[in-house]
Design goal:
Blueprint lengths: L1 E7 L4 E7 L4 E5 L4 H15 L2 E2 L3 H5 L3 H13 L3 E4 L2 E4 L6 H5 L3 H12 L6 E5 L3 H8 L7 E5 L2 H6 L6 E5 L3 E3 L4 E3 L1 H7 L4 E7 L2 E3 L3 E4 L2 H12 L1 E7 L11 E4 L6 E4 L5 H9 L3 E4 L1
Protein name: DeoR family transcriptional regulator
GO molecular function: DNA-binding transcription factor activity
Organism: Oharaeibacter diazotrophicus
Amino acid sequence: MHEYVIIDCTFMHMYRHVRTNAQAVMIPIALSPDERQARILDLLAGADRLPVAGLAERFGTSEDSIRRDLRALAGAGRIRRVHGAILPAAVLGGFDQRVGEDAPDKAAIGRAAAALVADAASLLVDGGTTTRAVVAALPRDRRIQVVTTSLPVVDALADHPLAEVVVVGGRFDRHSRTTVGAEAVAAIRGFRADVCLLGLCAVDTAAGITAVGYEEAAVKRAMIEAAARVVAVTTADKIGTVSPNVVGPAAAIDVLVTDRAPAAADAEALAALGVAVVVA
């Protein structure tokens, strides 16, 4: 009797092909949890969004086993779970690490978003390396009022001759280089701005706008509520990802400025929500 393994790449099943004198039979080989989880991540990497329905059948295991796999992956920060599907986890480093990442793309996003800011506009500016690129690109002959929680944004505007800058107080978060906390949220609620320039940690049309930090999410939410218009800026790799803390629905965004066109399904879903996408 000869015994060997065949991998069916179409359905991600593994089989033991057993040949006897009488007949050949295909018997599914049970994968270990680690093997299943690795294959789930492979599938997610190729799809950006993976429906949960059908995973048990695909891997020849029980629904309970798949739920345990997904809990383990989510607990390790490898995925985010939304209703009926899983998404890639948004992973952000510290400000110093992120400021050098995708710098030309962020500069292009900054120029495109800065072009949307009218003269004499009042702005609420969120933290992040991409929002810093926006304010750095603002023309020096444009009068603006900027209210911000971000020290890098303050630094970028330090030499702008016509920028009035208001720095929101609060607890300083070293990771994001912003002020956060109840004091910051209360101060933001005392303003009414023409535009909120919002940096995105993660955005998904189903899960909405999400952020890594709980206090960071509260600040972003307050800025959205205090502005007449929301211009969100992000590199395209954060579209279709989810972080742990909910900021609000994706429909809260009026304009999304990014470095390349979103995947067709994301673009269609954003359009259905009324979000205009600008590709820098």
